[in-house]
Amino acid sequence: MLFLDGYWGDEIYFRDIEDQIRKEFEFRFIFPMDIMNGITQYNRLNSVSVHVRRADYQLPAHQRIFPTS
After folding, report:
1. Share of the chain above pLDDT 90, in %
2. DSSP assignment, residue 59?
3. Percentages helix, strand, coil for the chain, rounded to the nearest 5?
4. How do residues 13-41 score in pLDDT, each as one tens digit?
5. Under 8 Å between Cβ of 68 and 57
6. Are 14 and 21 in contact (CB under 8 A)?
7. Is the pTM of this model over 0.85?
8. What distance in Å separates the CA atoms of residue 27 and residue 29, rounded to the nearest whole number?
């Protein structure tokens, strides 16, 4: 068993094993054609995706690391 505890938000922690990590996270299945068509369409556009995680940052235990007020 392996238990990791910490804040791993910087690539410096993983830079030396980047290739290995990328390989581990490769998709190992074939997407259905409708999804592949969507991916192809998005790759042609000048697009961006934004995901905002906030709820877990508001937990009292995380306020020291991620102050929200």
Report:
1. 12
2. S
3. 45, 0, 55
4. 889 999 999 999 888 888 899 988 988 88
5. yes
6. yes
7. no
8. 6
